[in-house]
Amino acid sequence: MTPLSQLLPGQYGKLASLNPERAVDQRLMALGLLPGMVLKLVRRAPLGDPLAIEFGGQVVSLRLAEAESLIVDVAADCPVQRPKKSS
Amino acid sequence: MSAKEITVALVGNPNTGKSTLFNALTGLRQKVGNYPGVTVARKSGRCDCGDGLKVELVDLPGLYSLAAASPDEQVVTDVLLGSLEGSQQPDAIVVVLDATNLLRNLFLASQLAELNLPLALVLNQADVAHEQGLKIDTQLLSQRLGGVPVVLSSAWKGEGIASVRRAIAEVVNKKPKMSRLAWPAQVESALDVIVQAVKNDTGVAPSTADAQRILFSSNAHTSDRLGWSQAKREPIIRQARDQVRAAGYNPLAAEPLIHYAHLRKVLDGVTSGGAGKQGNAAALDRVLLHRVMGPILFTGIMLGLFASVFWLAKFPMQWIQAGVDFLKAVVAPALAGTPMLQSLVTDGIIAGVGAFLVFLPQILILFLFVSILEDSGYMARAAFIMDRLFSWCGLNGKSFVPLLSGFACAIPGLLSTRTIEDPKARLATAFAVPFMSCSARFPIYALMCAAFIGPLYGPGWESVVMVGMHCVGLIFAVPTAFVLTRFILKVKPQPFVLELPRYQMPKPRDVIWRMWQNAAEFISKAGTVIFAITIIIWALCYFPRDAQMAEKIRAAEPALSSHELQARTQAAMIEQSWMGRFGKAVQPVFDPCGFDWKITVGVLASFPAREVIVSTLGVTYSIGKGAEADSQHLRQAMQEAKWLNGPRTGTPIFSLAAVLALMVFFALCSQCGPTIATLAQETGGWKWAAASFFYMTILAWIMAVVVYQVVIRIV
């Protein structure tokens, strides 16, 4: 179990849990980010925050502080991390 | 006509091409207004659906869910529920979906099905889906959703518009309803509990949709609207949510969980192919969001935007100014026989029209950029890059463009705050924009630097002061935003969850139309206020008038040349006008800043436009009308001006302390009628405009006093 914010760019994880009490998580659930969903940390912004994550065919930006309740499972059935080519 | 007119609401997620579709369906026969009491724009237009059927199509702001996290989304939900005062519930709903991401888009549609209104689905951007190899069986989808019309369109290419019209006609004539999902039994009974309790407590049975909002949403908006008191509702809601929990769902997660599970089954076999295709976003983002290249390209784009608003707009602004001057020159001789009427027409009416027209080039150019940046998908990336710099003080990445534009002019900057979805960050940004040192403050800095700082301390200090003055506003804007968002604004902050959409070529018609709509709204709302302010200030500076003034001055000093006589007359006229008397009366307030009554009058009379202070100083210092910042005579007159009475008699008025105090005052004060008018337009009332005016003015006064009192003791 890893907080989403600790994923490396390009790394995949399966959403293990979130906190439905939080407005951020409610918004993400409306976008279809539900437990069990595979997501990918696409990149961090040039200043390190916010993050861009990809799930269900869409890319969404969210702040580190707002992503704290998202816990992912870097499990075996997630696609393998691809090394990033650029910089 | 309006009573029987059929209203169809266009609803959908952001970035679905909904507005492009709306423009294609209505042509440009659109009306833009506001929903009563809120700042959400109401866009509507006539849509011809064939066979003589015309409906009023309403383009609602894009949203992802009816759970209504933000006040803007609340408006959409209220409109659709028919619960917004002064707004009728639409007769039917057309949901616009992004064909490339049906699952997510259908979540909103599935929520809308609960409203039990006739409904049709438009799968837009079908061309992109086709390119990605995605196949959609619309017939099967329609069948699974209870027979509602499901049509494909590509509004950008203008394809499928006719079938959308047919779908609207069908939804109006046959009233097909989208089948509701089968809720788990415990959820159904929890909803029943709420319906019964509300009915018992308020006497009115709520709709299923209302009951769902009460059960699933974390805010109390719906209960409050139905008049269901907190004491009565709390145990009932807790009981209902316990039932949902018994079914194995967290009540706040149940709605998306159940809808999405249902929709996955609905879509099974409906879509095929296209998996793994991401379109253009990933490749372009690798460059545009690159750690090094991203900020460089961002800076380049924003420099282009700023140069255009700041510099390019100057040419059409000069043409408008020339046009105004030409009109004055043409009209003035015709009214020479009636001096009061002549002055009213030229300095009041024509100048008043010019006062708001002159903002149009900047507004049009900024919205050209803003529309292109938004429609292309880059705006979300710009916000992504900049967010870190703004998030700590309660703003967000989208505050950047309004604040940057503010350095050219607050007016377009304020209008562009509407690109910020979060109402709290939007208001805080709007509050911060007038602090940016706009180009209208430049003439007074230039005059003061050239007349005093340069001659006394050399050009090096002149540029230091110039740069310093441009920073003063920024230094105060940041803590202001921080305090405002942290302690004063009670609105809940919205999470900064921002979709980074697919890149797309902006459509010229949409861009031009948006430029025009913003300009038109500005003219009809803020423009009329600016016009009124100009007339009022004109009258205050003109009346009362002594017709014998020129003769009296000539009698006292016969040696004056005709130009000198005219300048002295104008100075004497403004001195004894209401404005002059008022300026003299309030001068003691500004005395601790080192302002004499002439500066005070200049500050007060420049309310219609800041840069007017230079020509007002020209009048009060007897140089005549039309003085510019580079006028040698004005500089000389100001350098020679001395206190004629009081403790400072004989010392120069424009000491270093007074010069700096005046510049700091101008950097911070809200001495701009158009800004106040636009703030009122954008915040939906005078409350925030008044708050901004008093806050900035008091702050400016305090800082001017501090600067004056400190510097005068040092130098």
Quick structural summary:
The complex is a heterodimer of chains A (87) and B (715). With 87 residues, chain A is mainly β.
SSE topology:
The complex is a heterodimer of chains A (87) and B (715).
Chain A: E1 2-3, E2 12-17, H1 23-30, E3 38-44, E4 51-55, E5 58-62, E6 71-73
Antiparallel strand pairs in A: 1-6, 2-3, 2-6, 3-4, 4-5
Chain B: E1 7-12, H1 18-26, E2 30-34, E3 41-48, E4 54-59, H2 71-81, E5 92-98, H3 102-113, E6 119-124, H4 126-131, E7 135-136, H5 138-144, E8 150-152, H6 161-174, H7 185-202, H8 208-216, H9 221-226, H10 230-246, H11 251-267, E9 271-272, H12 281-288, H13 293-312, H14 314-334, H15 339-357, H16 360-376, H17 378-391, H18 400-406, H19 410-415, H20 423-432, H21 442-457, H22 459-488, E10 498-499, H23 508-542, H24 549-556, H25 562-575, H26 578-590, H27 597-605, H28 612-620, H29 632-640, H30 656-668, H31 673-683, H32 686-714
Parallel strand pairs in B: 1-4, 1-5, 5-6, 6-8
Antiparallel strand pairs in B: 2-3, 3-4, 7-9
Give a description of the structure.
The complex is a heterodimer of chains A (87) and B (715). Chain A is mostly beta strands. Chain A has a single domain, classed as Roll (SH3 type barrels), CATH 2.30.30.90. Chain A has one helix and six strands. Chain A has one helix spanning 23-30, and strands at residues 2-3, 12-17, 38-44, 51-55, 58-62, 71-73. A six-stranded antiparallel beta sheet of chain A has the order 1-6-2-3-4-5, with no helix packed on it. In chain A, β3 (38-44) and β4 (51-55) form a beta hairpin. Chain A is globular. Chain B has four domains: 7-174, Rossmann fold (3-Layer(aba) Sandwich); 185-248; 293-312 and 359-506, no CATH class; 543-714, no CATH class. Chain B has 715 residues and is of the alpha/beta class. In chain B, the strands form two sheets. Chain B has a seven-stranded mixed beta sheet with strand order 2-3-4-1-5-6-8, with helices on both faces. A two-stranded antiparallel sheet of chain B has the order 7-9. Helix content of chain B is 62%, strand content 7%. Chain B is elongated. Chain B is built from 32 helices and ten strands. Classes of the chains: A mainly beta (87), B alpha/beta (715). Chain A binds chain B through residues 20-24, 26-32, 34, 42-43, 45-50, 52, 56-63, 65-66, 86-87, and chain B through 64-65, 67, 69, 100-101, 103-104, 107, 218, 250-253, 256-257, 260, 278, 281-282, 285-286, 289-292, 294-295, 380, 383-385, 387-389, 391, 492, 494-500.
